[in-house]
Amino acid sequence: MPQSDLFGLEMLWKLESANLADKADAMMLFVHWFLVRNGFRNVGVGDDKTLNNAVDQSELLPEGWNGNNKSYALRYIMNNELYILHGTLSNDTMIVNLLQAQSLQVSNAAFNLDKTITSFNDSSLTNMVVSIDDQITRLQTELIKPLCDGGSKSSSTQTLISSSPSPAQVNAVPAGGPRRIEVLRPSGLLLPFGGGGVGRDDLNPLGGFVGGGGGGGMLMDPMNMRPGRADPFLPGARIDPMGPFPPRVQRPNPNPDHLPPPGYDDMFM
């Protein structure tokens, strides 16, 4: 901020210099001038968050504003919004907080009084504030900008969140119906044991008898129908067809017809 923007600081110092007790008062006077210079108007002391539009708005500090030079509380209004300025002295450091009453957003800045305010007996506050342009820049960036420019941070956060896919977008069905998940098999894959694939013939219980080719079906042939077998009957089945059929092929011993099954003569079987 150029020196021309210090307009009003000297006048404020002349009005309040008699009421200042120490460097803490001078620091709060400087902060008050900066707020007034940026459009704020004082509406009293205290930390009441209720805004009364009937109260007088002033560029001057209210009576009794520095009654406690360890803790300050001043109320301001700008653009019909209430702000509360707190100043707390802790170990020669003035901690300044500016609270927006409606949104409860707060900004803060800390100043070492010995490094910010020189000899308190100087006749001009302009000369008392060390590197006054730097202190004004700090007040602008640390105290006012976080509240007045807070919308830009919110909008950037909203943009970042909106760029992430929503659950509805994740679960949405693409145009043309649901997508098919295809498993790609590598081309030119050599299968062991002649290229038929291990276990493929076991999927066909009839093996090479039906469909031709292949090695031969399951290990246990359920129909006894492999080529070269005597007859296509279940192994061990008692089949005695009636009629003029050619003689049956003798089965290898033991023949299941030689011995009756257990309990064959039990009428309750």
TrEMBL record:
GO MF annotation list: endopeptidase inhibitor activity; proteasome binding
Compositional bias annotation for Low complexity: 154-166
Record-annotated PI31 proteasome regulator N-terminal domain positions: 17-153
InterPro entries referenced in this protein's UniProt entry, alphabetically: PI31-like, PI31_Prot_N
Name the record gives this protein: Proteasome inhibitor PI31 subunit
Any one annotated GO CC term: proteasome complex
Primary location recorded for the protein, binned into one broad class: cytoplasm
Segments for region (Disordered): 154-174, 241-269
Pfam families according to UniProt: PI31_Prot_N
Keywords on record: Acetylation, Cytoplasm, Endoplasmic reticulum, Methylation, Phosphoprotein, Proteasome
Compositional bias segments (type: Pro residues): 243-263
Gene Ontology annotations of biological process type: proteasome-mediated ubiquitin-dependent protein catabolic process
Function, as annotated: Plays an important role in control of proteasome function. Inhibits the hydrolysis of protein and peptide substrates by the 20S proteasome. Also inhibits the activation of the proteasome by the proteasome regulatory proteins PA700 and PA28.
Keyword Acetylation appears in the UniProt entry: yes
Subcellular compartments: Cytoplasm; Endoplasmic reticulum
Family recorded in the similarity comment: Belongs to the proteasome inhibitor PI31 family.
